[in-house]
Specification:
The complex is a heterodimer of chains A (800) and B (159). With 800 residues, chain A is an alpha+beta fold. Chain A has 23 helices and 29 strands. Helices cover 30% and strands 24% of the residues of chain A. By secondary structure, chain B is an alpha+beta fold. The chains are: A alpha+beta (800), B alpha+beta (159). At the A-B interface, helix 2 and helix 20 of A face helix 2, helix 3, helix 4 and helix 5 of B.
Chain lengths: 800, 159
């Protein structure tokens, strides 16, 4: 435990929290409800030009020529730029793993000579409005020399497969192998073994606001101002500066209101570079707003995983050994700043999940194909890893003839084992794995559900019950990313806390809030730490000029890391206010208590001074300050949640589904979740994250799938063929909590933003398999659980 | 392309715009009239983010050309609150029940659900879910939106 967290665990704020733990309605909501929010397409600048991109129609081809003459001649067109023309003005986006054996890709903002997926940008048109820009883009002719497409991992790994990247040995970004000592002996001695093959489809977070940016040139500050729908504005500034080869102080990134991110808006994208370059060259604002088709073609896809597993276990269903081969289809390029090996690397680390598995052998392959690059989506690899380990547990249960809940009870890490170091070296700080399971079985009335299932079967209805558990690694920083081989280790977040001369508070955070409610929850932390009213606190974010640096919002880190850095900075400021108040009240600083905006002397409540008066003194009459005290009531601090391997939330869930065995349709009727994310800052927001995550997980389980054909054409490019769950498909979710604070983090907070999305694939698969078990021995091994798959599984059990 | 004059009443105010026949109503509202509360999520009529009221009924403004609604009364999210900024019953209920997260789908949800409550003041939860089926929300899981609409209905006629 770090020295700092001990300090705060002991609670050096002498009063009970007024706000942390309270279900406070979000302070940011009115602007969204009134239609007054400002997303990037709402940012209006005089003289803005609009960009449209010419994108590859081919999955794999050499570009022979690009004819822009007709486009340039069109009225209203201001500029046309091709990849070949632009090659001198920038570097390719390149992001390399630190692991040996890595093969790196070069992702040009505009492809100069070769395209590697359908949708890759080749040229850009800038015109007076988007309608004209699109007209012009259609006039640009691209001549290709077709290369053999490599649209699947099987095609990519086949002997003699065409190489996607020149100079590579094969189509694999990275291969990793980890094996515990004596693994083969343990596996071979296991009384029982089973093998499974599990597949998760390629899909994505699909935020309702597509990507977009507006770049302008700021003459006064001599810099590019890039307004962008991004989750990580500081990282984006670093990336844009690197690719455009300019100093970082020549780039300012502003992330205004962002209409959902889910990981998709974490990477840097070519269009952001292109608009920045054009704005600087043209000295005019250049805006590009992605349309939904472009989003489906080019915003990072996620989670296309293929897992082959062998599990060894004893006759009681206790797992002794796990062998896995993880193959991830990473698409054409390594995205900045997470690398193409992120998914396979994380799956490698987290696959054993909340279970006590000590013998493990894993091969993890990150494979390149002629498809959209793979990136993050809520949970990253964990939905696939959870799907695999939970389906494995269910297979073990079936093999030894015990219930799915019971097999988990026998394998979960117990409360007395925390902190528990997993077989892959992850430190599970604390948790309630078994307690959550027991509670969810009780809350859902598991035994009663089994009786209902019996009764339904007697009526010819196929109800199924699923159980799943997971552990959610959150707020991991330097130590975890070092292990994953990312050059940037995302080691901290930053907060600046300022009490202004009027006694009002501004908290500036490096995270970005795009639905997570940080404007409210961080204000709750700050108000408690400073002893002021919530109404006097404003939380600001989204502009790289507001703070020195920070990473952004991803990996369920903002509450933990910005909550922690806010607390540290607020403690500094409160300390200074206490010293000033003590001087004004002629008391000792340790006797000063600040609450509800007033500082008073312990035991003498009549001797008091307001925060406003303290602030006024500090800034405007500094001659009254204690000798040697600096006047500014501000502090900027970082927080890394040492030891940097993350803090682990956990949950257990029960679901009930009904399968229509004629059509193969699946209806999710009930989901009960017991979730433990340590100290909760705002229960309203936490429950909102759980519900939203589970809804997305239902999409993963039942609907969502990017389908490429055999020549690498994406055939799902609208919401009519890429199905996301609507209101009729998502049931009301019953939520219960346990609270096991983290011993590692300030206030004991754990992250929880991704958790909801992790388990539904596993949970609903288990329930569907349970539902159709009377008809078929088939295993639900592939997501999404489409009606045709359900019918095929049922057919497997039909009498021959 | 020849431009045409389109006259609209938008949130009770008369507006005249000169637009190409191909100009979408959502673009006209956002770019010609500066009403950026109406959002564009898919441009193919599925996600519902662009929903506005046209002559009292919810419509997709991304599937409507501005010239098609010449003379119509349009109501957008900016027209829901009172002139002094007091939230409508539904807006308030959405706030109270955490019916929004990123907020991008919210204007479309508000317009579709305002339409529902005006046509059917006492909907069941199933009615609400069915009516909400034309609006994709990627953040909330819908339950809190349903809670909000139910609560707004219980509060009484929309203000």
């Amino acid at each position: 435990m770090s020295e700092r967290s001990e300090l705060h665990q002991d609670g050096d704020v002498p009063v009970e929290p007024r706000y942390v733990g309270q279900a406070i309605t979000r302070r940011e909501d009115p602007r969204f409800l009134l239609g007054r929010a400002r997303y990037v397409d709402d940012v209006r600048t005089q003289g803005t030009l609009h960009a449209a991109f010419v994108r590859s129609d081919e999955a794999h081809a050499r570009i022979l020529s690009v004819d822009t003459s007709a486009a340039e001649a069109l009225d209203g067109v201001v500029a046309v730029l091709t990849g070949a023309e632009a090659v001198e003005h920038w570097s390719p986006i390149r992001y390399d793993s630190t692991f040996g054996g890595w093969q790196g890709s070069e992702y040009w903002p505009l492809a100069p000579d070769k395209v590697r997926f359908v949708g890759e940008a080749i040229a850009v048109v800038v015109a007076v409005d988007r309608y004209v820009a699109e007209d012009a883009a259609e006039l640009i002719g691209v001549e290709y020399e077709l290369l053999p497409p490599v649209p699947t991992v099987d095609a990519a790994m086949a002997p003699g497969a065409p190489l996607i990247h020149d100079g590579w040995d094969d189509n694999c970004f990275l291969r990793r192998h980890v094996e515990t000592e004596g693994f083969e002996d343990v596996m071979s001695e296991c009384p029982q073994r089973r093998t499974l093959r599990l597949e998760m489809s390629r899909h994505s977070g699909m935020p309702m606001e597509t990507r977009g940016c507006l770049a302008e040139w700021d003459d006064r500050n001599e810099r590019i101002v890039l307004h962008c729908s991004t989750q990580a504005h500081f990282n984006l500034r670093s990336g844009v500066a690197e690719v455009l080869r300019v100093p970082e102080h020549e780039v300012q990134v502003i992330a205004p209101d962002v209409g959902g991110g889910f990981g998709i808006k974490h990477p840097m994208y070519p269009e952001e570079i292109v608009c920045s370059l054009l704005a600087r060259r043209l000295r005019r604002p250049v805006k590009w707003i992605e349309d939904r088709r472009e989003h489906m073609l080019t915003a990072c896809h996620s989670r296309e995983h293929y897992h082959d597993v062998e599990v060894g276990f004893d006759d009681d269903g206790v797992v002794r050994a796990l062998r896995a081969r993880i193959v991830v289809d990473c698409g054409a390029y390594s995205m900045w700043p997470l690398t193409a090996s992120m998914d396979a690397g994380m799956a490698l680390g987290i696959l054993p999940g909340p279970y006590r598995i000590r013998n493990y052998l894993v091969d993890a392959l990150s494979v390149s194909t002629n498809k959209c690059p793979l990136g993050a989506y809520r949970g990253v690899s964990r939905p696939a890893a959870c799907f695999t380990i939970e389906r494995t547990m269910d297979a073990v249960a079936e093999a030894v003839g015990i219930d799915g809940a019971e097999v988990r009870r026998r394998n979960l890490v117990r409360a007395d084992e925390f902190p528990y170091t997993s077989v892959t070296g992850m430190v599970y700080d604390s948790g309630s794995f078994i307690e959550s399971l027991e509670k969810v079985l009780e809350e859902a009335d598991y035994a009663g559900l089994r009786r209902q299932q019996e009764a339904a079967r007697a009526e010819g209805r196929y109800l199924g019950i699923g159980v799943a558990t997971y552990t959610e690694q959150t707020a991991h920083t330097f130590e975890e990313f070092k292990k994953r081989g990312t050059p940037i280790t995302f080691g901290f977040e930053t907060s600046g806390v300022e009490v202004d001369p009027s006694g009002h508070v501004t908290v500036r955070i490096s995270a970005h809030s795009h639905g997570q409610g940080l404007e409210t929850s961080i204000a709750q932390v700050a108000a408690d730490a400073l002893g002021v009213d919530l109404e006097s606190v404003r939380v600001r974010f989204g502009d790289t000029t507001e703070l020195p640096y920070g990473m952004g919002t991803f990996a369920s880190r903002s509450a933990v890391l910005c909550g922690g850095s806010t607390r540290l900075a607020a403690d500094d400021v409160r300390g200074r206010m206490e010293r000033i108040a003590a001087h004004l009240l002629e008391a000792a600083p340790e006797d000063i208590i600040i609450e509800k905006g007033r500082a008073s002397v312990r035991g003498t409540p009549t001797a008091s001074v307001s925060v406003r008066d303290i602030a006024h003194t500090a800034y405007l009459t500094p001659q009254l300050l204690p000798p040697g005290e600096e006047p500014l009531l501000s502090s900027t601090r970082t927080y890394d949640a040492a030891p940097g391997t993350g803090t682990f939330s956990n949950a257990a869930l029960v679901a009930v589904v009904e399968v229509d065995v004629e059509t193969g349709g699946v209806e999710v009727q009930k989901v009960v979740v017991v979730e433990d994310c340590g100290q909760i800052i705002n229960p309203l927001i936490v429950d909102g994250q759980i519900r939203g995550g589970i809804a997305q997980g239902i999409g993963t389980a039942l609907f969502e799938e990017f389908v490429y054909d055999e020549i690498g054409q994406l055939v799902t490019t609208t919401f009519m063929d890429y199905i996301v769950p609507g209101s009729p498909e998502v049931p009301d979710i019953e939520i219960h909590h346990l609270v096991t604070p983290s011993p590692f983090t300030i206030l004991g907070i754990k992250g929880m933003g991704e958790g909801g999305a992790i388990s539904p694939g596993a949970l609903i698969a288990a329930a569907v398999e349970d539902a159709i078990r009377p008809l078929t021995p088939a295993h639900v091994h592939a997501l999404p659980i489409r009606p045709d798959r359900v019918r095929a599984w049922i057919e497997e059990g039909a009498p021959q | 392309m020849t431009r045409r004059t389109v006259t609209l009443s938008v949130n009770g105010q008369r507006e005249e715009i000169l637009v190409e026949p191909r100009r979408l109503l959502c673009d006209a509202l956002r770019d010609d009239l500066g009403l950026t509360g109406t959002h564009i999520g898919c441009e193919h009529g599925v996600c519902g983010a662009c929903t506005v009221m046209v002559d009292g009924r919810a419509e997709r403004s991304c599937m409507t050309f501005a010239v098609q609604v010449d003379g119509a009364e349009i109501r957008t999210v900016e027209g829901l609150a009172s002139s002094t900024g007091e939230l409508s019953t539904l807006q308030q209920a959405m706030w109270d029940h955490h019916g929004l997260q990123c907020g991008f789908c919210t204007p479309g949800v508000l317009m579709a659900m305002t339409d529902l409550l005006e046509r059917q003041p006492q909907p069941t939860r199933d009615d609400i879910r069915t009516a909400l089926a034309g609006n994709i929300c990627r953040c909330t899981g819908y339950e809190t939106i349903v809670d909000a609409v139910e609560a707004a209905a219980a509060t009484g006629p929309a203000r």
